[in-house]
Amino acid sequence: MKVTLTTLCLVAALQFASHLFAADSDVEIHCVAKKVSEATKKASGEARMTKDMFGQPILAVGGGTNKTNENWVYDVTIENKTFKELAGVEIKYTIFFKQEKQGTKDAPMQVHQNGTFTLPALKPHEKQTFTTDSVELRKSNLVGEFHYANGGRIRAEDTLAGLAVRIYQNGQPWAEYANPSILLKENWK
Q1: How confident is the model over 127-157, as pLDDT tens digits?
Q2: pTM value surpassing 0.85
Q3: Residue 110 included in any domain
Q4: Which CATH number belongs to the domain containing residue 80 in this structure?
Q5: Is residue 41 part of a domain?
Q6: Any idea what the Cα angle at residue 128 is, between residues 125 and 134, rounded to 5°?
């Protein structure tokens, strides 16, 4: 009797959970990252007076920092794999990226940017694509044979870490997706 009651509770819990999220075959989600713009500012390469290791004045050419700012977006495609129209669809997404700081030894810091998108309806077997808001990734590097006295990094580069998407239908969670899938475990609500 005890085993049967436990089995019934487990079956009921599984049936409830299946109604909470869409089945894998109900919706298909794909995402592609793409760079939409880039702006580069080169170091001035000015000549300046400095001292060599013996304290003698020398003319140094170069120095400064090259900086590049890139804007990246994700194109997200959602396909309704069911035979019924989906209405009242809201998509909440989070773009994860890592930021590095030039001149420090600190580990890269993971940050995220949230956004939402609404679809009035998604017809049976229809695909719709939307583009996320852009995130700015920065790159910088020292020019010449310079370094930081503290041993900090002379080159810093922000990188995309991935995208997490949660789909709601009529205010209820319906499906979720992340690339890489480990991002579903992150706190991104």
Answers
A1: 999 999 999 999 998 887 777 778 888 889 9
A2: no
A3: yes
A4: 2.60.40.10
A5: no
A6: 155
